Protein 1
Amino acid sequence: MQPQHAAAAILLAAGLSACSPSAQAPASTGLSSTDLDSVTAAYQLVQFDLTECQQLQAGGASPQTIAVSQKICADASGYQVSLQQLATARNITLPDKMSYDLESRFIVLRYHPNPNVNAQYLHDAIESHEDALAIFGNETANGTDPQIIAFDRGAIPVVQTNLDALRAAQAAGT
């Protein structure tokens, strides 16, 4: 391999490794993998909600779906600030990109809403909220960091309320 190609490959690898869909923290913080999984799930849910809400605002969604998404977006915006504060306080580096799974769901919503944007959004949002609830529940049962456990205990009722609203909209055929 030529020297300039080797240097380019090293820079590319370094740049790719800097992007992470997972929360990170120095070992000195004493955070468990369960704690970091919970912070990652919170970040992913907030980013996914905000990204999908922007897409729904672009058009094509029913007024009922938009109403549900606006409540979820308002909650996500508030949690985004709280999550950043928690990350700063606990020396956690938040992810800097959505997970591949969530990113692919967004791409489908944006370019191939199937069977329609309402059904696709509700399906994706229900899945992402169910996944987050499972991880938050695991954190409250098995986590080691009191601040992260408290954050999740506060988030669980909000995420559950939003999940219930999403399921009701789905059942109504919105």
Note: Confidence is low (pLDDT under 50) at residues 1-17.
Protein 2
Amino acid sequence: MIEVKNITHQYGKLKTLDDVSIVFKDQKITGVIGANGAGKSTLLGIVSRLIKPLSGTVHVDGVNVKGMKGHDLAKRIAILKQSNQVNIKITVRELVSLGRFPHSKGRLTTNDITMIDEALNYLALEELQHRYLDELSGGQKQRVFLAMILAQDTQYILLDEPLNNLDLRYGIEMMSLLRRIVKDYGKTVILVLHDINFAGAFCDELVAMKNGAIIKVGDANAVIVKSVLDEVYNHNFKVCCLDNQQVVLYENSDE
């Protein structure tokens, strides 16, 4: 379980998180939504210890991340940031192998190789494993990065806008893969999403943020409602239920 307690953060005089507390549920997909500047990415950065909070604590399985060694934390939490550009010539297999670094420190064991092979197989990347990353499409690259995270074999997977620059097909594929990973491996996934309908369709729980604060936590039926979305995004939304799923309709405000 990841427990965030009274986290505050600011850049200069700008407060980006304001006394945020939340418990992320195990073996679920939690989507964090909100407008730009709401504090979504900062929250993930603090949970993964990439960003230092001004105050407050983050506990993973009851242990304060502040006192954990880096390699121990990397065995519990994996994070994929918005910008995951790789500027070196590297093959798919080599990149996926990097996920084992917290375990092997670069000296791959038989178990490491097994984990790498399993991740490549699970993400259907066997035929691409000797291709160079810069030869792949955006959707294929994202699967490779996800395979690297899977090979890292952490309980908690944090993803910051994993659908960024993906078309509709690859976006659906990515979210479907995440749901399979949660089901098959019992992982806990926390991700930042901009598409509200994707969040409602694929996430077990949603966290709606605004101005560094949490406005609402719950399932799609509790969060994807007009009153909540209007407050979070400062916009006049239209929300309907289609096939038992909350759906946001985007209207042309000029009409």
Note: The chain has two domains: 1-76+155-255, 84-153.
